[in-house]
Amino acid sequence: MDAGIQSHPNSEMLAQIGNGAYGTVYRARSASGQIVAVKKVRVNLSADGILLSTLRKVLLLKELTQCEHLNIVKLLDVCTGNRTETDLYLFLVLEHLEQDLSNYIEKCPQSGMGASLVRDIMFQTLMSGVDFLHSKRVIHRDLKPQNILISSSGTVKLADFGLAKTYDFEMLLTSVVVTIWYRAPEVLLNSTYATPVDTWSCGCIMGELFLLRPIFYGTSEVDQLDKIFSILGIPPETSWPEQTTLPWSLFKNYTAADLEGMMPDCSPDGLNLLQNLLMFDPCQRISAAKALAHPYFKEHGYIACYLNCIFTRILRRKRNVHKYFELTKDCNKINSVAHSITLHY
Asked: Was domain 3-95 assigned CATH 2.120.10.30?
Protein backbone atom coordinates (compact mmCIF):
# COMPACT_ATOMS: atom_id res chain seq x y z
CA MET A 1 0.00 0.00 0.00
CA ASP A 2 1.13 3.58 -0.61
CA ALA A 3 2.09 5.98 2.17
CA GLY A 4 -1.18 7.85 2.04
CA ILE A 5 -3.34 4.83 2.73
CA GLN A 6 -1.04 3.56 5.50
CA SER A 7 -1.87 6.67 7.54
CA HIS A 8 -5.50 5.61 7.97
CA PRO A 9 -5.75 4.95 11.72
CA ASN A 10 -8.77 2.70 12.11
CA SER A 11 -8.77 0.13 9.29
CA GLU A 12 -6.57 -2.62 7.91
CA MET A 13 -6.44 -2.32 4.11
CA LEU A 14 -7.02 -5.71 2.45
CA ALA A 15 -7.25 -5.04 -1.30
CA GLN A 16 -7.95 -2.33 -3.86
CA ILE A 17 -11.39 -2.89 -5.36
CA GLY A 18 -11.95 0.22 -7.44
CA ASN A 19 -10.28 3.27 -8.92
CA GLY A 20 -11.90 6.25 -10.61
CA ALA A 21 -11.75 9.97 -11.23
CA TYR A 22 -12.94 10.73 -7.68
CA GLY A 23 -10.80 8.36 -5.65
CA THR A 24 -9.55 4.85 -4.96
CA VAL A 25 -11.66 2.31 -3.07
CA TYR A 26 -10.23 -0.38 -0.82
CA ARG A 27 -11.73 -3.39 0.88
CA ALA A 28 -10.72 -3.07 4.53
CA ARG A 29 -11.28 -4.45 8.01
CA SER A 30 -12.28 -2.00 10.72
CA ALA A 31 -10.97 -2.07 14.28
CA SER A 32 -14.12 -3.97 15.30
CA GLY A 33 -13.51 -6.61 12.63
CA GLN A 34 -16.23 -5.42 10.26
CA ILE A 35 -15.48 -5.57 6.52
CA VAL A 36 -15.87 -2.06 5.12
CA ALA A 37 -15.07 -0.09 1.98
CA VAL A 38 -12.59 2.77 2.40
CA LYS A 39 -12.59 5.44 -0.29
CA LYS A 40 -9.39 7.45 -0.42
CA VAL A 41 -9.92 10.87 -1.98
CA ARG A 42 -7.26 13.45 -2.70
CA VAL A 43 -8.70 16.92 -2.09
CA ASN A 44 -7.27 20.33 -2.88
CA LEU A 45 -6.75 22.81 -0.09
CA SER A 46 -7.52 26.50 -0.20
CA ALA A 47 -5.84 29.18 1.89
CA ASP A 48 -8.47 28.51 4.55
CA GLY A 49 -8.16 24.70 4.47
CA ILE A 50 -10.54 22.16 2.94
CA LEU A 51 -12.67 23.58 0.13
CA LEU A 52 -16.28 24.31 1.01
CA SER A 53 -17.48 22.13 -1.87
CA THR A 54 -15.68 19.11 -0.35
CA LEU A 55 -17.19 19.74 3.06
CA ARG A 56 -20.65 19.99 1.49
CA LYS A 57 -20.26 16.57 -0.14
CA VAL A 58 -19.20 14.97 3.14
CA LEU A 59 -22.10 16.61 4.95
CA LEU A 60 -24.45 15.40 2.22
CA LEU A 61 -23.27 11.82 2.71
CA LYS A 62 -23.71 12.11 6.47
CA GLU A 63 -27.21 13.52 6.06
CA LEU A 64 -28.24 10.73 3.69
CA THR A 65 -26.78 8.11 6.05
CA GLN A 66 -28.76 9.48 9.00
CA CYS A 67 -31.98 8.74 7.11
CA GLU A 68 -30.95 5.05 6.99
CA HIS A 69 -32.60 4.40 3.65
CA LEU A 70 -32.39 0.74 2.68
CA ASN A 71 -31.13 1.50 -0.82
CA ILE A 72 -28.42 4.08 -0.04
CA VAL A 73 -24.88 3.07 0.94
CA LYS A 74 -24.08 4.26 4.47
CA LEU A 75 -21.15 6.49 5.43
CA LEU A 76 -19.67 4.99 8.62
CA ASP A 77 -16.73 7.30 9.34
CA VAL A 78 -14.60 10.12 7.93
CA CYS A 79 -10.95 10.85 8.72
CA THR A 80 -7.92 12.53 7.17
CA GLY A 81 -4.56 11.14 6.07
CA ASN A 82 -1.32 12.71 4.84
CA ARG A 83 -1.37 16.45 4.20
CA THR A 84 0.81 18.80 2.14
CA GLU A 85 0.59 22.53 1.56
CA THR A 86 -1.75 22.05 -1.41
CA ASP A 87 -3.78 18.91 -0.71
CA LEU A 88 -4.62 16.13 1.71
CA TYR A 89 -6.05 12.63 1.70
CA LEU A 90 -9.60 12.20 2.95
CA PHE A 91 -10.85 8.72 3.88
CA LEU A 92 -14.54 7.88 3.66
CA VAL A 93 -15.40 4.62 5.43
CA LEU A 94 -18.52 3.10 3.85
CA GLU A 95 -20.50 -0.07 4.27
CA HIS A 96 -19.16 -2.84 2.02
CA LEU A 97 -21.25 -4.81 -0.45
CA GLU A 98 -19.98 -7.82 -2.36
CA GLN A 99 -20.28 -6.64 -5.97
CA ASP A 100 -21.58 -3.93 -8.26
CA LEU A 101 -24.27 -4.23 -10.90
CA SER A 102 -21.70 -4.19 -13.70
CA ASN A 103 -20.05 -7.35 -12.32
CA TYR A 104 -23.48 -8.86 -11.74
CA ILE A 105 -24.47 -8.31 -15.39
CA GLU A 106 -21.18 -9.78 -16.62
CA LYS A 107 -21.83 -12.99 -14.66
CA CYS A 108 -25.35 -13.43 -16.03
CA PRO A 109 -25.92 -16.29 -18.49
CA GLN A 110 -26.58 -15.35 -22.12
CA SER A 111 -30.22 -16.30 -21.60
CA GLY A 112 -30.56 -13.21 -19.39
CA MET A 113 -31.28 -12.54 -15.73
CA GLY A 114 -35.06 -12.91 -15.98
CA ALA A 115 -37.86 -10.36 -16.02
CA SER A 116 -38.69 -10.67 -12.31
CA LEU A 117 -35.11 -10.00 -11.22
CA VAL A 118 -34.88 -6.95 -13.50
CA ARG A 119 -38.10 -5.64 -11.95
CA ASP A 120 -36.79 -6.16 -8.42
CA ILE A 121 -33.49 -4.38 -9.14
CA MET A 122 -35.31 -1.50 -10.80
CA PHE A 123 -37.75 -1.10 -7.92
CA GLN A 124 -35.24 -1.42 -5.09
CA THR A 125 -32.66 1.04 -6.21
CA LEU A 126 -33.15 2.74 -9.51
CA MET A 127 -36.58 3.90 -8.43
CA SER A 128 -36.88 3.87 -4.64
CA GLY A 129 -33.29 4.99 -4.05
CA VAL A 130 -33.48 7.71 -6.70
CA ASP A 131 -36.88 8.85 -5.45
CA PHE A 132 -35.41 9.21 -1.97
CA LEU A 133 -32.51 11.30 -3.27
CA HIS A 134 -34.83 13.54 -5.24
CA SER A 135 -37.07 14.00 -2.20
CA LYS A 136 -33.95 15.39 -0.49
CA ARG A 137 -33.26 17.70 -3.47
CA VAL A 138 -30.21 15.62 -4.42
CA ILE A 139 -29.31 14.75 -8.02
CA HIS A 140 -26.93 11.79 -8.17
CA ARG A 141 -25.65 12.78 -11.65
CA ASP A 142 -23.54 9.64 -12.19
CA LEU A 143 -25.90 6.67 -12.13
CA LYS A 144 -24.36 3.67 -13.88
CA PRO A 145 -23.99 -0.07 -13.10
CA GLN A 146 -20.59 0.50 -11.46
CA ASN A 147 -22.22 2.81 -8.90
CA ILE A 148 -24.98 0.38 -7.94
CA LEU A 149 -23.97 -2.24 -5.39
CA ILE A 150 -25.57 -5.63 -4.68
CA SER A 151 -25.20 -7.67 -1.50
CA SER A 152 -25.17 -11.47 -1.33
CA SER A 153 -28.76 -11.32 -0.02
CA GLY A 154 -29.94 -9.31 -3.05
CA THR A 155 -30.14 -5.86 -1.46
CA VAL A 156 -29.32 -3.16 -4.00
CA LYS A 157 -27.86 0.22 -3.01
CA LEU A 158 -26.82 3.45 -4.69
CA ALA A 159 -23.20 4.44 -4.14
CA ASP A 160 -20.49 6.88 -5.22
CA PHE A 161 -21.88 10.36 -4.72
CA GLY A 162 -18.77 12.07 -6.13
CA LEU A 163 -20.89 14.05 -8.60
CA ALA A 164 -24.03 14.29 -6.47
CA LYS A 165 -25.34 17.77 -5.86
CA THR A 166 -28.16 19.45 -3.99
CA TYR A 167 -30.09 21.88 -6.12
CA ASP A 168 -32.60 24.67 -6.08
CA PHE A 169 -34.77 25.89 -8.91
CA GLU A 170 -32.55 28.81 -9.90
CA MET A 171 -29.06 27.29 -9.82
CA LEU A 172 -26.89 26.55 -12.84
CA LEU A 173 -25.41 23.05 -12.87
CA THR A 174 -22.18 21.98 -14.55
CA SER A 175 -22.34 19.96 -17.76
CA VAL A 176 -19.62 17.44 -16.84
CA VAL A 177 -21.87 14.75 -15.42
CA VAL A 178 -22.67 11.09 -15.98
CA THR A 179 -20.62 8.54 -17.90
CA ILE A 180 -21.51 9.14 -21.54
CA TRP A 181 -23.55 5.93 -22.12
CA TYR A 182 -25.99 6.97 -19.37
CA ARG A 183 -26.03 10.70 -20.13
CA ALA A 184 -29.37 12.40 -20.83
CA PRO A 185 -29.91 14.30 -24.11
CA GLU A 186 -30.20 17.66 -22.35
CA VAL A 187 -26.72 17.16 -20.88
CA LEU A 188 -25.29 16.00 -24.22
CA LEU A 189 -26.73 19.16 -25.77
CA ASN A 190 -25.32 21.38 -22.98
CA SER A 191 -28.81 22.48 -22.03
CA THR A 192 -30.18 23.08 -18.53
CA TYR A 193 -31.03 20.02 -16.48
CA ALA A 194 -32.37 18.80 -13.15
CA THR A 195 -33.59 15.53 -11.58
CA PRO A 196 -34.76 13.99 -14.91
CA VAL A 197 -31.09 13.29 -15.77
CA ASP A 198 -31.20 10.56 -13.11
CA THR A 199 -34.40 8.97 -14.41
CA TRP A 200 -32.90 8.92 -17.93
CA SER A 201 -29.92 7.02 -16.49
CA CYS A 202 -32.39 4.63 -14.85
CA GLY A 203 -33.92 3.96 -18.26
CA CYS A 204 -30.49 3.25 -19.77
CA ILE A 205 -29.74 0.81 -16.95
CA MET A 206 -33.13 -0.89 -17.31
CA GLY A 207 -32.40 -1.46 -20.99
CA GLU A 208 -28.97 -2.85 -20.11
CA LEU A 209 -30.47 -5.29 -17.60
CA PHE A 210 -32.52 -6.84 -20.42
CA LEU A 211 -29.86 -6.64 -23.14
CA LEU A 212 -26.84 -7.45 -20.92
CA ARG A 213 -25.03 -4.61 -22.71
CA PRO A 214 -25.43 -0.82 -22.80
CA ILE A 215 -28.48 0.18 -24.81
CA PHE A 216 -26.71 3.31 -26.14
CA TYR A 217 -22.93 3.06 -26.48
CA GLY A 218 -21.57 6.14 -28.25
CA THR A 219 -17.97 7.29 -28.41
CA SER A 220 -18.62 11.05 -28.22
CA GLU A 221 -21.49 13.41 -27.38
CA VAL A 222 -22.64 13.59 -31.02
CA ASP A 223 -22.25 9.84 -31.55
CA GLN A 224 -24.13 9.17 -28.32
CA LEU A 225 -27.05 11.30 -29.51
CA ASP A 226 -26.96 9.46 -32.84
CA LYS A 227 -27.10 6.10 -31.03
CA ILE A 228 -30.07 7.32 -28.96
CA PHE A 229 -32.02 8.55 -32.00
CA SER A 230 -31.28 5.36 -33.95
CA ILE A 231 -33.26 3.42 -31.33
CA LEU A 232 -35.81 5.91 -30.01
CA GLY A 233 -36.28 7.89 -33.23
CA ILE A 234 -35.36 11.53 -33.71
CA PRO A 235 -37.56 13.90 -31.67
CA PRO A 236 -39.62 16.59 -33.42
CA GLU A 237 -37.69 19.76 -34.15
CA THR A 238 -40.13 21.72 -31.96
CA SER A 239 -38.83 19.90 -28.87
CA TRP A 240 -35.17 20.66 -29.63
CA PRO A 241 -33.52 22.94 -27.03
CA GLU A 242 -33.11 26.51 -28.23
CA GLN A 243 -29.79 27.15 -26.51
CA THR A 244 -27.54 24.48 -28.02
CA THR A 245 -24.71 24.52 -30.52
CA LEU A 246 -25.83 21.26 -32.17
CA PRO A 247 -28.61 21.80 -34.73
CA TRP A 248 -31.47 19.32 -35.10
CA SER A 249 -30.65 19.02 -38.83
CA LEU A 250 -27.25 17.48 -37.99
CA PHE A 251 -28.91 14.12 -37.27
CA LYS A 252 -30.54 11.57 -39.53
CA ASN A 253 -34.32 11.35 -39.60
CA TYR A 254 -34.46 8.07 -37.68
CA THR A 255 -37.70 6.26 -36.88
CA ALA A 256 -38.08 4.38 -33.61
CA ALA A 257 -36.70 0.84 -33.50
CA ASP A 258 -38.72 -2.17 -32.33
CA LEU A 259 -38.01 -2.21 -28.59
CA GLU A 260 -40.24 -5.26 -28.12
CA GLY A 261 -38.13 -7.17 -30.62
CA MET A 262 -34.93 -6.00 -28.93
CA MET A 263 -36.17 -7.04 -25.47
CA PRO A 264 -38.59 -9.95 -25.85
CA ASP A 265 -38.47 -10.68 -22.08
CA CYS A 266 -39.74 -7.20 -21.23
CA SER A 267 -43.50 -7.06 -20.62
CA PRO A 268 -45.75 -4.44 -22.26
CA ASP A 269 -45.85 -2.55 -18.94
CA GLY A 270 -42.07 -2.72 -18.74
CA LEU A 271 -41.69 -1.35 -22.27
CA ASN A 272 -44.09 1.46 -21.41
CA LEU A 273 -42.06 2.38 -18.31
CA LEU A 274 -38.83 2.21 -20.31
CA GLN A 275 -40.22 4.55 -22.96
CA ASN A 276 -41.35 6.98 -20.26
CA LEU A 277 -37.92 6.94 -18.63
CA LEU A 278 -36.28 7.58 -21.99
CA MET A 279 -38.40 10.52 -23.11
CA PHE A 280 -36.29 13.09 -24.97
CA ASP A 281 -38.06 16.03 -23.35
CA PRO A 282 -37.11 16.09 -19.64
CA CYS A 283 -40.40 17.83 -18.81
CA GLN A 284 -42.28 14.80 -20.16
CA ARG A 285 -39.95 12.21 -18.66
CA ILE A 286 -41.51 10.23 -15.82
CA SER A 287 -40.32 11.08 -12.30
CA ALA A 288 -38.98 8.46 -9.92
CA ALA A 289 -42.02 8.93 -7.66
CA LYS A 290 -44.47 8.31 -10.50
CA ALA A 291 -42.39 5.41 -11.79
CA LEU A 292 -42.74 3.66 -8.42
CA ALA A 293 -46.52 3.66 -8.91
CA HIS A 294 -46.31 2.43 -12.53
CA PRO A 295 -48.26 -0.76 -13.37
CA TYR A 296 -44.93 -2.46 -14.16
CA PHE A 297 -44.39 -2.59 -10.39
CA LYS A 298 -47.90 -2.18 -9.03
CA GLU A 299 -49.40 -5.12 -10.93
CA HIS A 300 -46.81 -7.44 -9.37
CA GLY A 301 -47.45 -6.42 -5.76
CA TYR A 302 -44.67 -3.85 -5.32
CA ILE A 303 -45.93 -1.06 -3.08
CA ALA A 304 -44.24 2.31 -3.01
CA CYS A 305 -45.90 3.76 0.10
CA TYR A 306 -43.41 2.34 2.60
CA LEU A 307 -40.47 3.97 0.86
CA ASN A 308 -41.42 7.56 1.55
CA CYS A 309 -39.49 9.66 4.05
CA ILE A 310 -41.84 9.05 7.00
CA PHE A 311 -41.84 5.30 6.57
CA THR A 312 -38.08 5.21 6.07
CA ARG A 313 -37.75 6.65 9.58
CA ILE A 314 -40.07 3.95 10.86
CA LEU A 315 -37.84 1.29 9.29
CA ARG A 316 -34.96 2.52 11.42
CA ARG A 317 -36.60 0.65 14.30
CA LYS A 318 -38.32 -2.10 12.32
CA ARG A 319 -35.54 -3.38 10.07
CA ASN A 320 -37.22 -6.74 9.41
CA VAL A 321 -40.24 -5.12 7.77
CA HIS A 322 -38.57 -4.81 4.35
CA LYS A 323 -37.83 -8.56 4.41
CA TYR A 324 -41.43 -9.22 5.32
CA PHE A 325 -42.63 -7.08 2.43
CA GLU A 326 -40.39 -8.96 0.01
CA LEU A 327 -41.80 -12.28 1.18
CA THR A 328 -45.46 -11.35 1.18
CA LYS A 329 -45.85 -8.85 -1.70
CA ASP A 330 -49.42 -8.54 -0.42
CA CYS A 331 -50.95 -5.06 -0.52
CA ASN A 332 -53.42 -5.50 2.33
CA LYS A 333 -50.90 -7.12 4.68
CA ILE A 334 -48.32 -4.46 3.92
CA ASN A 335 -50.70 -1.60 4.61
CA SER A 336 -51.83 -3.30 7.81
CA VAL A 337 -48.28 -3.76 9.04
CA ALA A 338 -47.43 -0.17 8.07
CA HIS A 339 -50.40 1.13 10.07
CA SER A 340 -49.44 -1.01 13.07
CA ILE A 341 -45.83 0.19 13.06
CA THR A 342 -46.91 3.80 12.71
CA LEU A 343 -49.06 3.47 15.83
CA HIS A 344 -46.12 2.05 17.83
CA TYR A 345 -43.36 4.33 16.51
From this structure: no
